[in-house]
Amino acid sequence: MEKKADTPIYWSAVECEEWNLILAATDTGLCYVGSPGQPLDAIAEWAGRRWPARLLQRDDGKLQPYAEELAGFLQGKQRSFAMPLDLQGTPFQMAVWRALCGIPYGETLSYSELAEQLQRPSAVRAVGTAIGANPVLITVPCHRVIGKDGALTGYRGGLDMKAKLLRLERDVLSAEGGRMHA
């Protein structure tokens, strides 16, 4: 679906605990979550590639509901997101991102398991590429995908962020008496 050039992409910088993230949304929903400490140039570059005719406009108030929901997750107060998303991708990317949203909180899947789940067992690399193109870190939980051997592998936010998110989920489940499944 083509976006109107005169409709801005709204952005805000969000700080929560040790997390410092840039969020962006359209009038439709959240469209970008950056890596911790990422410079503003990164979102400008992303928006220029994705929606070249649209301007970035800072609007902390418009992004506040998204920031609050994300903060609730990062503080271990909630396990999922209800916020609307505005994801733009190929049909394959969209299928991968939907599958990521189906990985339960505190659980992980390997890239090959995800490819099998999508009934594309030979598309492991393509699955990895689609995961790497996920514009909304944390909310579309690509951090829950690990190597076949259980190792943490590639993550746009960096392996430190991936490890922190998995540890957060494990700790929340542990505190609640739940179990983490691999």
Structural write-up:
Helices cover about 40% and strands about 15% of the residues. It has about 180 residues and is an alpha/beta fold. The strands form two sheets. A four-stranded mixed β-sheet has the order 3-2-1-4. Strands 5-6 form a two-stranded parallel ribbon. Helix 4 crosses helix 5 (about 125-130). The radius of gyration is 16 Å and the shape is globular. About 30% of the residues are buried.
Which labels suit this protein?
182 residues; alpha/beta; 6 helices
Distance between the termini: 37 Å
What class do helices, strands and sheet pairing give? alpha/beta
Q: How big a fraction of the residues is strand?
A: 5-15%
How do the strands line up in the largest sheet? 3-2-1-4
Mean pLDDT: 89
Low-pLDDT sequence parts: none
Number of strands: 6
The major beta sheet can be summarized as: 4 strands, mixed
Describe, in short, the structure shown:
By secondary structure, this protein is an alpha/beta fold. Helices cover 38% and strands 14% of the residues. The longest helix is centred in the last third of the chain and has 17 residues, at 159-175.
Itemize the secondary structure elements and their pairings:
Elements: E1 9-16, E2 19-25, E3 30-33, H1 40-50, E4 56-58, H2 60-74, H3 91-101, E5 109-110, H4 111-117, H5 124-132, E6 145-146, H6 159-175
Parallel strand pairs: 1-4, 5-6
Antiparallel strand pairs: 1-2, 2-3
Pfam families: DNA_binding_1, Methyltransf_1N
Domain Methylguanine DNA methyltransferase ribonuclease-like: 9-87
Catalytic activity: a 4-O-methyl-thymidine in DNA + L-cysteinyl-[protein] = a thymidine in DNA + S-methyl-L-cysteinyl-[protein]; a 6-O-methyl-2'-deoxyguanosine in DNA + L-cysteinyl-[protein] = S-methyl-L-cysteinyl-[protein] + a 2'-deoxyguanosine in DNA
